[in-house]
């Protein structure tokens, strides 16, 4: 069963045995034409863009993603769930959930998560604005889905952290 995680969920941190790296996590920003992929670094601390998969059909897409799951020894998959701003289902959320369900069926041994990804693509466009060297629309299109996947993975990695405000007495 897919776990749908709210963005502000706080969970108990997991300790890994000494010398054992945390499992690698792959994030997917699923669109109609492309899937952006991002992966955690080997220590599981940061999100790194992997590449953009140009979609053909479900079977080929699942096969391509499966290669990366095996190649990078991924143990958890996060798929972005692009719901509307009010939390209701969007047509793209239904498509992303269908892809996530097919991926889970193909790889049941992995942990599967759906994460609210409202506005990640908009934030990715803002990051790749005119000052970033991606002013050309075609150049931005090549990496926008990867950046959205990185933002999604960063949200997943930081979902357990509590933001502390500075001590006003210091």
Structure description:
The chain has one domain: YqgF/RNase H-like domain (Nucleotidyltransferase, domain 5, 2-Layer Sandwich). The chain is about 35% helix and about 25% strand. The protein is built from four helices and six strands. β3 and β4 form a beta hairpin. The radius of gyration is 16 Å and the shape is globular.
CATH fold category name: Nucleotidyltransferase, domain 5
Number of domains: 1
Largest sheet: 6 strands, mixed
Number of helices: 4
CATH superfamily: YqgF/RNase H-like domain
Short recap of the structure:
The protein has 170 residues and is α/β, with parallel strands linked by helices.
What are the main properties of this structure?
4 helices, Nucleotidyltransferase, domain 5, 170 residues, 6-stranded mixed β-sheet, alpha/beta
Could you outline the blueprint of secondary structure elements for this entry?
Layout: E1 3-5, E2 24-30, E3 34-40, E4 47-54, H1 58-71, E5 74-81, H2 91-106, E6 111-116, H3 120-127, H4 137-157
Helix pairs in contact: 3-4
């Amino acid at each position: 069963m897919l776990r749908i995680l709210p963005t502000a969920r706080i969970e108990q941190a997991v300790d890994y045995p000494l010398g054992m790296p945390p499992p690698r996590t792959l994030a997917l920003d699923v669109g109609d034409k492309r899937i952006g992929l991002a992966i955690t670094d080997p220590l599981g601390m940061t999100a790194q863009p992997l590449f953009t998969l140009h979609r053909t059909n479900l079977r080929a897409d699942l096969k391509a993603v499966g290669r990366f799951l095996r190649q990078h020894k991924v143990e958890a998959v996060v798929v972005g769930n692009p719901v509307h701003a009010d939390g209701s289902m969007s047509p793209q959320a239904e498509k992303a959930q269908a892809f996530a369900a097919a991926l889970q069926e193909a790889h049941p041994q992995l942990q599967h998560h759906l994460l609210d990804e409202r506005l990640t693509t908009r934030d990715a466009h803002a990051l790749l604005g005119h000052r970033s060297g991606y002013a050309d629309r075609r150049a931005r299109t090549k990496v926008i889905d990867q950046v959205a996947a990185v933002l999604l993975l960063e949200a997943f990695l930081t979902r357990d952290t509590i933001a502390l405000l500075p001590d006003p007495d210091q």
